[in-house]
Fold:
Amino acid sequence: MKTQTKMKKILFFYLACLISLTATAQQDPEALKILTSFSKKATAAPSVSISFSAVTNNIQEGSITSVDGSVVISGDRYKLLLPDNNIWADSKTIWSYLPDVNEVTITEPDINDKSFFSKPSLLFSLYKEGYKIRLLEQTSKDWIIDLYPEDITTNLVRIRLKIGKALYDLKSAEYKTKEGLIVMLNCNKYDLTFKPAGEFFSFSQAAYKDVEVIDMR
Structure:
C-alpha cells in the first residue's frame, strides 16, 4: 500500500509538471505540425479515454515501481482511476475517494493552479508554451518528439512523447529529471469515441454505502 501511495504521488507530480512551465517556447516546425494535429483531434473528441501503465525508475534510490490506471478527460472534467484512489472532477468540484477506508474528500479546483487537476485538457496543449520542441525520430508507425523546458533552472530535463501516425494517438510519455527520476507512461489504450454522460464526472454518494465524507470546500 505504501508503494502504491508513493507511486500515485509521483504520478500526480509528473502529470502536474507536464503543464506547469510558462516560458516562451522555441518550436521545430515539423514537431509543431504533428503536435497541433494531435491536439486538435483530442480536443475535438467528446472525451479522451486512456488506459495506462506508469513505471517510475528512481535512479538515486535504486528503485522501480509501477502502477496501472485509467483516465477519461473531457474539457475541464475528468475521472481518474488508480489502485488506491479514484478521482472525479466536473470542473467545479473534485471528489477524491479512497476505497480502502471508504472515504471521500471534496475540494474545489484552484483557478490559479495550472496543473493536471485544475485543467487536465492542458495535457494536449502543453507544447504551446514553456518548451523547445524537436522531432527526434520517426518510424513507419510513429513520431518521437522531445520537449525541453525553456527555464533551465527547473528540475525537468525533458519530456519525450511518442505519437502514432495513423490516429495521432499518444503511445507513451517519458518524464526525466536532473535528480535521476524517470517516469514512463505507456498508453495501453487511447480512445476518442466515448461519449460520457454529465454525471460520469461526479461522485455518487448513493453508490457508496456508509462512505465518510470530508468536505473541504
